[in-house]
Target: Claudin
Amino acid sequence: MALVFRIAMQFVGLLLSLLGWVLSIITTYLPHWKNLNLDLNEMENWTMGLWQTCVTQEEVGVQCKDFDSFLALPVELRVSRILMFLSNGLGFPGLLVSGFGLDCLRIGERQQDLKKRLLILGGILFWISGITTLIPVSWVAHMTVQEFWDETIPEIVPRWEFGEALFIGWFAGFSLLLGGCLLNCAACSTQAPLASGHYAGTMVSAVAEMQTQCPYLENGTADPKV
Model:
């Protein structure tokens, strides 16, 4: 029962980590980190991401323009690019390492210590990936709130608000953290027997040896040579 529970925990942790990694990649390139609605022109909607700014108009459609210079960006967007790249880069090796550490995988099934270390390493990589996703998303959200309530800006000036990418990024970061926690909990739980086939073979050998000794025990001798 403990083995089944641990395998289920490993699968859930790996699936959550995979989901968080995919959503983190989507968040990186989605141009909806900030939204801007113009009261004077309700048919025009502006969005901003890490790489470009887009405007949606009812007649023209969506038009996007990439940022010209990396150094000209606000500091939160520059740091967010680097951290999101780091998050995306750590997620893939985390999946590979954790995959090889699963108990259901036949490769290295007799090397339980190695599989345990692989699971722990994969969980740590997912933790770092989740943290490096939550930091830029939360930082951009914090700056957006500060600018929204800035009293030095006239009320007539439109204010940026939260975009959909921020919520996707939060969900991705917490999924990576939770997935890493489940993998580490599964790795640190009690180890099960090596394998059911090895255990069954040992039992069969013991039963056969007992059957061999039974006739001599009935004759009152413990040694088959007597």
Notes: The radius of gyration is 29 Å. Confidence is low (pLDDT under 50) at residues 192-204. The longest helix spans residues 112-148.
